[in-house]
């Protein structure tokens, strides 16, 4: 019974509950009426319902299915509804569903152990967060406390999350209302296709981008720079795989000036590039690694910072002032343990490497050869971008209306793409099969052919 004086709840609607397409309509109606959506004008929200999923596919209530070439926000590395991960979450839910970060908990310890097992030698601890933005937030704070310096240099073409320091470190349009924050400096990273340095080869682009970064450090005053914060492979900004030697060169600059190197592996980490961490292919070891997304495929929000021994030691006798009520949440931790165990047992990372090498890489290269809208394809593993242009010679980006049409046609033909600016990102789950990868590529190729015509 309701306590006296409280109004009665609204009467439940009578009649049969909607099903199928009618349920999709009802879901959309409630969503558009009540939810304030991220990164959207609320008057122009997409009409897309996801009711369920399994592996590399999702579906709505009417039974329409899509091949998920987006992994949602590039996080569902192990695919949708992996039974072992779902079971582990249920099992943990029966045991304990919340615990303060100030206590010790078996599942959290296990999760930290699993994450550390994937880190290079010399990493000591994990600081857990609820996602990627707060991982970067806390990594920046660790770097500042460790060095006693203030400034953070990040790349113009980057995305680091949508909270205070993380969004200011971000190089795209989302940082702009927060520009007043102090201590953040941006530099250009390598991007040969649209070189800021007038370079014509990878080697030139690499050398000039490194020279530029070192000049920024020198001009800012090396003793004021706490950290260089970079995505190992800038993801949302276009899957900008750095040229060989670039990250090793950044490491050298950081060492020369006593700067902490933070690599953001939130999108690139835990299998997406075909290795556990993307930096493994770049001959570099950072001081701090931030992660989220693929660590448990987003089944329960989780992220964190992998901390080197030297930086961890800073906080042996000194309080680290970071902390979140839900740091190391038991359900998220259970999902990490189960996801990482299943990925190892099932060769999920190896699968991502193989599908990238045998199917996506060659398929996208063929697409670039045949279609006049494709300016460049870049990527590795299950982490690719197709950059679309109006003109291959001038490299003028394809207009927004044509990109929107490409997205709509992909959806109509059963593929859910990840579209950013003038690019289609091909980022299926790491468990995608060869046949699914071919199926998605065939749809994308057909759509681009039709739009080009
Ligand atoms: N860093 C990178 C590289 C990302 O791609 C993202 C999200 O897309 C973030 C950080 C932010 O992560 P979250 O949305 O979990 O806060």
SSE arrangement:
Elements: H1 20-34, E1 52-54, E2 57-59, E3 65-68, H2 71-74, H3 83-95, H4 106-117, E4 123-129, H5 132-147, E5 151-155, H6 164-169, E6 184-187, H7 202-220, E7 225-231, H8 246-257, E8 260-264, E9 288-291, E10 303-308, H9 309-314, H10 330-346, H11 348-370, E11 374-380, E12 383-388, H12 400-412, E13 415-416, E14 418-420, E15 423-426, H13 434-452
Parallel strand pairs: 3-13, 5-6, 5-7, 7-8, 8-9
Antiparallel strand pairs: 1-2, 2-3, 4-10, 9-10, 11-12, 12-15, 14-15
Helix pairs in contact: 3-10, 4-10, 7-8, 11-13, 12-13
This protein binds pyridoxal-5'-phosphate (PLP).
Organism: Isoptericola chiayiensis
InterPro entries: Aminotrans_3, Aminotrans_3_PPA_site, PyrdxlP-dep_Trfase, PyrdxlP-dep_Trfase_major, PyrdxlP-dep_Trfase_small
Family: Belongs to the class-III pyridoxal-phosphate-dependent aminotransferase family.
